[in-house]
Amino acid sequence: MKDTNFVFFVLILAVLNVGAELTFDKYPEHFIFGVGSAAYVTEGAWDIDGKGPSIWDEFSIKSGWTESSDGGQIAANGYNYVKEDVQRLKQLGVSHYKLSLSWPRLLPHGTNSSINEAGFQYYDYVFDELLANGIKPFVALYHWDLPQTLQDDGGWLSSDSITWFKDYANLCFERYGDRVKLWTTIEDPFSIAYKGYVTGEHAPGFQHSGNEYKVGHQLLLAHAEVYQLYQSKFRGHQGGEVGLTISSDWYVASTEDEDDIDAARRALIFRVGWFLEPLYRGDYPRIMKQRIAHKRKTLGYRHQKLPKFTSEDKAKLIGATDFIGISHFKTKLVTGQVNTSPSPGFYNDQDLVLSVDPSWPKLEYRPELNHESDRRLTGFGLEELLKYVTSSYDRPVIYVTQNGLDTCGTLKDQHRIEYIRDYTNSVLQAIKCGSEVRGYFLWSLMDGFDWEKGYKSKSGLYYVDFDRDDRPRYPRSSVEFYRSLIAHRGLTEDLISYRAYAQDRDEFYYGKFPDHFEWGVATSAYQIEGGWNEDGKGPSIWDKFAHKGRLLGKVTGDVTCDSYHLYEEDVRILSELGVNFYHLSLSWSRILPDGTAGSYNQKGVDYYNNIINALLARNITLMVALYHWDLPQALEDKGGFRSDLIVDWFEDYARICFEQFGDRVKLWLTFNEAYVISFFGYGVGEHAPGVRDPGVGVYKAAHNIIRSHTRAYHLYTNHFKEKYGGSVSIALDIEWKEPLTDSEEDYLAADRAIQFKLGWFGNAIFGGSGDYPEVMKHYVAEKSRRQGFSSSRLPEFTEEEKKLNNGAFDYLGLNHYTTHLVTQSNTTTMRPHYEDDQDIEILNDPCWAPCKADWLRVNPWGIRYILRWIKEHYGNPPIYITENGRATDDSLEDWDRIYYYKYYINEVLKAIRLDNVDVRGYSAWSLMDNLEWTNGFDERFGFYHVDFTSSKRPRRPKQSAYFYRELIANNGFPR
Prior knowledge:
The chain is α/β, with parallel strands linked by helices. It has 34 helices and 30 strands. The protein starts with a helix and ends with a strand. InterPro entries: GH, GH_1_N_CS, Glyco_hydro_1, Glyco_hydro_1_AS. Belongs to the glycosyl hydrolase 1 family. Klotho subfamily.
C-alpha cells in the first residue's frame, strides 16, 4: 500500500472538498460506454420455462425486509422484452451491455444434475440479439441470485460453494464463450457477505456477525477457481477476459486530524483491500487482520478472525484477474471514533463513523423534504477511488461497471443528468491522471426490483410502469443526454448546459404579491350548510344521492358543518384568519325549492343576506358561486343539464340572485368546476345525479352549462353591471398536464388533455372563437364516425351562440390541485366515451407525494405551468385562483398542508413576478373540514378542524391556519 499517496489524496479532499472542472476533452478511442442491469432486477418470469427458485425469490416474498410484497416475480418483465430492450440499447448508442445470468434459470437446483435447456436457449437468444445489433455483452456470472436449493445446502457458507460455482461457470463458458468476451465472476462480494449474511438486508437474510469474513473468503476462492478454469481451458480459443467487480464508496477524512485521516484509510482498506489485496498480494491487508483479531478477542469472540489462505490458495489468488470492475455510487465523510458496542461487527472493527458533508449538493427531487439525504453530487469521489486503485494495485485495467443515481423516479430526471455529467467527467479526469479505465457502465438501463428497496427506488434511464403487468417502458430525459454524451465521446457546450427543465422550476422565490392582491378561502353550500330541509329548502340532487347511501360510510350532508345555524361562527373564524374575501356558493334549492322562480323562498334569501351582511361588517368581501353541483332535484326530474330548458331555468335563478344580492356581491361565479358536473355527474355517474352516459350525455350537459353561463353573464352585463359594478366568470378546474416523455407525441397528448378538459369550457369563453377547441372537435368527430354515429357526439354551437360565448367573462376562476403525466395512447375500443376520445393515458410521477385524497399528488410547479398556459392561450385574462389545497388526516398538526400551501402559493407568486401572469387573487380550499362529496368526512381539507361527532360542530384552528394568516399579513414571502 502506498500510504503517503493515500494520505495526500485524503488531505487534499478534506481541505478543498471539490471535484474537477467539467472538461471538453474526449475519451480514448478504445473506451467503451455501456449500461447495465441484472437478472433478478429486470427479468421476472421467476418460475417460467423451468427456472428454479433463487434465494431472492424466497427472501423478497417472505422476509418482510423488502418494500414490495411480490418481490421480483415480474420485475421489469425483461424476459419478454428482449427485442424491444435491445433496440433501446441500440438507440442509446452503447457498445456494450452489462447483464448477469440467472444461475437458477440455467441450473434450477444449482448443479449440473439439473440443466435447463430452455434457460440456456433464453440467453442464446439474448446474446444473439445483442450481437446482431452491434452490442457486445459484458456478463456477470453471479449477481446475488443463488439457487435456493444450494442455499438449503449451506449457500456461500459451505466450502462446496466453490465447486458449485466452478461447475456453473464451466457450463457458461462452454455455451457462451464464443460470444462473450468480458466476464465478471462475482458482482459486489461485499454486499453478498455483509448484507446477505450479517445484517440480513439481502438474501438469504442471515443476521450473524462474523459470517461476512467467512463468506467473503469463500467468494474470493470461488472467483480464483473460476479465473484459473478460464485461463487453463477457455482463454486460448475464446480470447476473453475475466475479472472481479468490487463495490466501494470513496472516503474523505472529516477533518485534518490524524485520527480522522487514519479512519478514512481504514475504511478503504476494509472495503477495497478486503478483496483486492488477496488478488494482488495473496493475502488480506495486514491492518485488517490485526484489527479484526484484536477487536474480536477484546469482545470475547476469539473464533471470529479473518480466515487464512493456504499457500495453494495464495498461488491461485495472486494475479487472478484481468481487470477490476468497480461499482461506485457515493462518497462519505469519515470520523475516527472508538466503537464501544459490546457486539462485534464489520463497522465496529473499523472504529469510525460515516456521515455526509451537508455542503455537497443534494440530488433529491424536493431537497427541502429530505434534509438528511445522502444522495449528493460527489463525482470527485469516483475519480479519487479510481486513482487510489491505480496507485495501490499496480495500475490495473479498470471498468466502472456500476455507477448511477437511484431516485424516487421522476421522468424529467435532471439530477440523474447532473450525476452522469459529473461522474463521467471524473472518469475522464482519472484517465488523464494515468488510470487505465477502459469503460463506463451506467446503472441502469431501466427501473427494476431494487433489492431491499423494492420498487420505490428507481435507477433506470427508462421508467417502468410497475402498475401494469406488461411493464411498459418510457424514456427519461437522461436517455437523450447519455445518448448524446456517447455520440460525442465526451461533453459539449450543449451537454454542459443540458437541462431536463428550467433552472428556476423548483427554486423558492422571495418577494411579495402586488398590493391589490386579494386573499380568500372557499367553501360550498352542500358541503358545510346542513339544514337540508329546513325553512322551506327543497331537496337537491345531492340530498337524494346521499340518502341513497352513495357516500363513503353512507353519511349525508343533512347536518355536515351545520353552517346554516353556525354561520356567525364561520364569519368569526374568517375574520380570525385575516382573509380579504370569502368564496362561497348559494344553494339553488334553498332559494328556489323546486328550481323555478315561482317557488321563491324568502327564508333562504334571508339566510344569505345575513351571511353577506355579517361578512361585510367584518370587512370581508364575497365571491359567490351560483352553482356548486347541488341542482334542485325537481329540475333533475325534468332532465337537469341534459335538458335545453336548463338555460332558461338557470337564467331565472341567476336573475333573482343578482337582484337580491348584487348590491353587495362584486365577484360572481356562474358554475364551479363545470367538468366535474358534466363528467362525474352525467358521464360516469360517480356524482349526483348519478347519470351514466359518458359518450353522449356528458357532452350534452357540458354544452348546456356553457350556454347557461353565457346567458347569465350577458344578463348581468346588460342589466346589472352598470348599477352594481360587479364581475362575472366561471370557475374551471384543471391539472397541469405534463408530457410523460420528451417526445413530440407526448407533448401533443398533454396539450390535448388540457384542451379536452380546460379547453372544453374555456376555449368557447376565453379562447377567442366562441367554440370548442379544434383538436377536440376533430377527435370526437373522428371517433364518432368510426363508431357509426351520423354526426359528432360533440354538440355544435350556432353562429349566434359562438358570438355570445366569445368573451363572456370578466375574469377567469381557476381551481387547481395537482398535476398529471400524459402520454399518447391510441385507444382502439369502440365504446363512446369522453376519456377514450382523447387518445391519452394518465399517470402519476412517482416523485410527487401522495396524500389522503388518492387523486391528489403534490407537485407545486404545476400551478405555475398551467397559469402560463392560460396566459399564452387565452390572452392573459385576470385570474382568481378559486380553489387550491390538499387533504390531510384528522390532526391539528398539519405540516404537510403547510408545505403544500407554502410551495404552491410561491409558484403563484413566480407566475406573477417572473411570467407576468395577471393573477388577482387566491382562495384556498377550504375554510374548514367538511363533507368531501362521495368521500364523506374521510378527507379533511380545512384550515379549521371540525368535530363531526359533536352536535355543536366546534371549529378549531390547525397549524396551517396560523401559517396562512401570517402569509396574508406579509402579503407573500419576504426574506
